[in-house]
UniProtKB/TrEMBL annotation:
The gene is Pirt. GO terms for molecular function: phosphatidylinositol bisphosphate binding; transmembrane transporter binding. Residues 1-29 are annotated as: Disordered. The chain crosses the membrane at residues 54-77, 89-109. The lineage of its organism: Eukaryota, Metazoa, Chordata, Craniata, Vertebrata. It is a multi-pass membrane protein. It comes from Piprites chloris (Wing-barred manakin). Residues 7-16 have a biased composition (Basic and acidic residues). It holds the Pfam family PIRT. It is found in: Membrane. InterPro entries: PIRT. This is PIRT protein.
Length: 132
């Protein structure tokens, strides 16, 4: 019987096969997915669905109004006028960007909700006809 030649460096050993393959790979993939499962039919409240875009909208509106206040201060105050003129438009643009982001996010969520409802309906039809 022939002994295979040893590698010059003992640290180059390959890891055991049980470390490479885990038995929970499928469940880990399902748990780590960000989308909700089609099989869960728990209804969520409107706040749970729309809380993130509402928060983005409100923060954007607050930043936008803060930018308007800073710009109006640059008109009335004579001291430090350059600071107000530089930071005011920055807050205006940031607030407007967040407002638009939140306003676009809401129709996207509505479209996803409709697709999810259609998918659940089709899934129930499939299970009704194929389980007979």
């Amino acid at each position: 019987m022939e002994i295979p030649p040893k590698s010059p460096d003992e640290s180059e050993k390959s890891p055991p096969s049980r470390e490479l393959i885990t038995s929970r790979t499928g469940s880990t993939l399902c748990m780590s997915s960000r989308s909700e499962s089609v099989w869960t039919s728990t209804s969520r409240s409107k706040w749970e669905i729309y809380h993130k875009p509402v928060i983005v909208l409100s923060v954007g509106a607050a930043i936008f109004l803060f930018g308007m206040v800073i710009i109006s201060l640059s008109c009335f105050l004579k001291d430090e006028k350059n600071i107000y003129k530089m930071s005011g438009p920055a807050f205006l643009s940031l607030g407007l960007m967040l407002l638009v982001y939140g306003l676009v996010w809401i129709p996207i969520i509505r479209k996803k909700q409709k697709q999810r409802q259609k998918s659940q309906f089709l899934q129930s039809l499939k299970s009704f006809f194929f389980n007979r």
